[in-house]
Specification:
It contains 10 helices and 3 strands. A 3-stranded antiparallel sheet has the order 1-2-3. The protein is mostly helical. It has a domain at about 45-105.
């Protein structure tokens, strides 16, 4: 069993970001409601074929059209965690580094392509940390929020601002901001 987050971890991260622990818990709830790890101990991942396509210059688009495509779509996402892991493993067999960069990892779904931003020299070092614990996943999240300038949005509960910075301009398509607001309210009421 991989180490999971305790209440003190949320408090420490909230102190580092100068926000309420409920804000960080809300991000967890929306990004990976089942936690940072799959039942087999692998980190929760989501492979993004449009990123893989970009990193490999479309080299595998004909051979593996469900792994390499020019525009974002959720059409090829695995329906189960096993299917999603299988997609990632197939991509790793084609182009390891590109595949690792093209997946989001763990409880906070940090993209491998952001490994430098969150303090890792290589994407492999980042992935190794994501395998260690939810604590390592949380530290990557804290660094990401600090470097991306999103701490103020968390502090103010500016869910649209945070969602835009964390998930990109299409965040509203998935109601990411309203999901964060709802989760935050729930965790605030439980405190």
């Amino acid at each position: 069993m991989k180490p999971v987050l305790a209440e003190q971890d949320f408090i420490d991260a909230a102190t580092a970001l100068d926000c309420l622990p409920a804000a960080i818990k809300a991000v967890c709830q929306v990004e990976a409601p089942g936690g940072g790890f799959n039942p087999d101990g692998t980190p929760v991942t989501l492979f993004e074929g449009h990123k893989f396509h970009r990193y490999t210059a479309g080299k595998f688009a004909v051979q593996a059209p469900d792994l390499s495509y020019p525009k974002w779509t959720r059409q090829f996402y695995g329906k189960t965690w096993q299917a999603e892991q299988a997609r990632l493993q197939r991509a790793i067999a084609l182009a390891r580094e590109a595949a690792l960069k093209s997946a989001s990892w763990g409880k906070f779904q940090i993209m491998g392509l952001n490994h430098h931003m969150v303090g890792f020299d290589t994407v492999q070092a980042f992935v190794n940390a994501m395998y260690e614990s939810e604590g390592a996943q949380l530290m990557a999240f804290v660094r990401y929020v600090q470097i991306a300038g999103l701490a103020t949005a968390l502090r103010r509960q500016d869910w649209a601002g945070f969602a835009h910075g964390y998930n990109g301009p299409a965040y509203a398509d998935n109601h990411y901001d309203s999901k964060l607001a709802t989760a935050f309210t729930t965790f605030t009421e439980l405190a």
